[in-house]
Queue: 4 jobs
Job 1
Amino acid sequence: AQSVTQLGSHVSVSEGALVLLRCNYSSSVPPYLFWYVQYPNQGLQLLLKYTSAATLVKGINGFEAEFKKSETSFHLTKPSAHMSDAAEYFCAVSDSGGGADGLTFGKGTHLIIQP
Amino acid sequence: GAVVSQHPSRVICKSGTSVKIECRSLDFQATTMFWYRQFPKQSLMLMATSNEGSKATYEQGVEKDKFLINHASLTLSTLTVTSAHPEDSSFYICSGGGNLPYEQYFGPGTRLTVT
């Protein structure tokens, strides 16, 4: 069975500082990994995805994530936080790419941006 | 592209009644649609997977007679919560996948409140 662990339910950074949101996964097969962002009372927006191509994945809004098989990690980073980045972030895993099977989500990390 | 809509966005119903939530893929055909449930400040949990023209596959612990899912066409899936109870109050999110590799496109969600 696949699972996702997001370390830190809340992360607070200052505007302009580095954002680091941690995600570790477990999967019996090479996984497909995703990061989604959710603003209050809204659905999910895909930030980026790892699909076994390049291990460093660049996404929207300046976010990127690096797949590290040896560490079973897929941490999300952004060099400089912006106030508009404040939201809930979810890491998700799929064995099949997500198109034909549901995703398994982590518990989420609430990102707080301090002015 | 790849837009999914949900209707209604918010619904309040009385205990014991049934409520239907619609999920539509607006600009693509979703062979597979997924229904997730999200409790306040928690992650998304997959409830069921539906394929057009066939019965939905429910996750363990989800009552199929309570959460009726119909996927009548490649652009429409419905979730009916029957005999709703206050504990059914939640945020329900659908997504469409299937022919789109590696991605699910999420709807904006429906906030159900059962009084």
Note: The CA atoms of residues 6 and 75 of chain B lie 12 Å apart.
Job 2
Amino acid sequence: DADVTQTPRNRITKTGKRIMLECSQTKGHDRMYWYRQDPGLGLRLIYYSFDVKDINKGEISDGYSVSRQAQAKFSLSLESAIPNQTALYFCATSAGTGGAMGYTFGSGTRLTVV
Amino acid sequence: KQEVTQIPAALSVPEGENLVLNCSFTDSAIYNLQWFRQDPGKGLTSLLLIQSSQREQTSGRLNASLDKSSGRSTLYIAASQPGDSATYLCAVITDKLIFGTGTRLQVFP
């Protein structure tokens, strides 16, 4: 089983719909992150969480919200999806300050908003 | 604001060549640096993690170096193979991960 699992792998949704992307990890890491990747723009940080009670906005948090349900689970919600949220979304984990053991990424969720 | 730049943006080489991919960052106050590989439409695979106290790391045909004072890291790929074709991303680690824009590598037979 993968260390970081994202569901669903692919999703097509309509404009205005609410959608949730889920991430779970078996790494035992305390820190979790959501990134989106767009062609030509690279990976950009949406939200991150250093523990269950800690949620922080990244550089592009508008239109998104997150929930850290447990140490191992971190979900990303689009309250009202719009076409420019079409992208590849990645969840990542790390342990401790400075990512001394590096970051581990999930396989991604390809989201299309029509 | 930390900015991470990768040069070249794209590279196409014949099989067997030794390659150097470059990564530069503007703020030397980083904890660590990590190199990833990404195949088209796929996830990120970690290649090498260099901690700030280290100057290089090696894994198989890959060698990555880090010079914090000059804000540079290089990824050296020896004896390139078609299977090395992918996008290579460097990322500096502060309290979060900040990515470069990547180098798209194509190795042809």
Note: The interface with chain A takes residues 31-32, 34, 36, 41-44, 46, 49, 51-52, 89, 91, 93-97, 99-102 of chain B (CB under 8 Å).
Job 3
Amino acid sequence: GAVVSQHPSRVICKSGTSVKIECRSLDFQATTMFWYRQFPKQSLMLMATSNEGSKATYEQGVEKDKFLINHASLTLSTLTVTSAHPEDSSFYICSAYIRGEQFFGPGTRLTVL
Amino acid sequence: LAKTTQPISMDSYEGQEVNITCSHNNIATNDYITWYQQFPSQGPRFIIQGYKTKVTNEVASLFIPADRKSSTLSLPRVSLSDTAVYYCLVGDRLGNQGGKLIFGQGTELSVKP
């Protein structure tokens, strides 16, 4: 199956700074990628759908100006958490939708101090 | 999108067969049933997918009754390494909804020695 990578695997930042998380599809092109957020002991929550060459589609309740998504190529989508606050601390997971299957990245642990 | 209901947690012992049942009463005609496994601080991993009757692979079996309103994931002879959260998802594999998957609460399986 396809391999999806995320970078960084974990990041610690100060409150008020912005953090960029990369999601790469290593061996397949993905026109659609998804971003999820997962708090401890909870399920994955879909944040947005990232479409190559167009604007992302955000789920209800997710602030598009705070979570900036860019899908500039068929193998890379980025999620930028702007002006991060401690409540944004979470596990962020991306996935690539390829030929009817969804392949997940290993996740990025964000800790905002 | 069809909603799923699973037990929150299950306990088992090494070597036993574990069956996790998922209810999806309003499954649509085009929907497939997919199970994922997630270890702590990792992205979900695909286990098995099916549409009807029975599907078996090297990891698990999936039993789907004729009405498709439920499904059962069967893990033969579990080991300690099978301790994880298991998610049952229902969605259109063919991409008519863009591959969007919504995770329910999942079942936390704990395998004891």
Note: The mean pLDDT of chain B is 91.
Job 4
Amino acid sequence: AQKITQTQPGMFVQEKEAVTLDCTYDTSDPSYGLFWYKQPSSGEMIFLIYQGSYDQQNATEGRYSLNFQKARKSANLVISASQLGDSAMYFCAMREGWSNYQLIWGAGTKLIIKP
Amino acid sequence: GAGVSQSPSNKVTEKGKDVELRCDPISGHTALYWYRQSLGQGLEFLIYFQGNSAPDKSGLPSDRFSAERTGGSVSTLTIQRTQQEDSAVYLCASSSGSSTSTDTQYFGPGTRLTVL
């Protein structure tokens, strides 16, 4: 079974609109961390935002926020006021357990911002 | 401070040749990771180094792949007798190596390997 599922292979969004990228996860470990990365066409993987399983608040970093719904096991990335430079692949990843260094990666969502 | 650097950025080689890819992690980071990303695909874990511990090589796809990390810093990924299926982007990442939930991997720009 997939541990990280990103159901949207591709999305088109109008510039300045908000966009939500879906990520659902599957783990029985009560301690886990969720990460979102952006990969522009240049290829570099850029860390965006992190959410820990015990965090009480949804994580925010500038225009990025994470809609963390623990009971539903979802950690959707929300980008407010999208910009052309947001066009990229977006990956969701999970670490199960604090001592486990491995990240489990989703397949990614390709986001294209239209002018 | 400086991020993770990788060299070369692009490498074109002929089938059967050996190649070496280099990664210089963020200063002070004890953990280093190598991944492979084929065109349009997600990340495939290759190998993990943490300090002076024995590396986790469980992701290496064959014995043609090897990696070393000298002095706990720079790492070299070597692919011997390259095959066309080795063509991919090889990404290196480093992290502080702390056993906490927030230990975040920071990536280099990658090396695009093309085997003709």
Note: The interface with chain B takes residues 31-33, 35, 37, 42-47, 50, 52-54, 91, 95, 98-99, 101-103, 105-108 of chain A (CB under 8 Å).
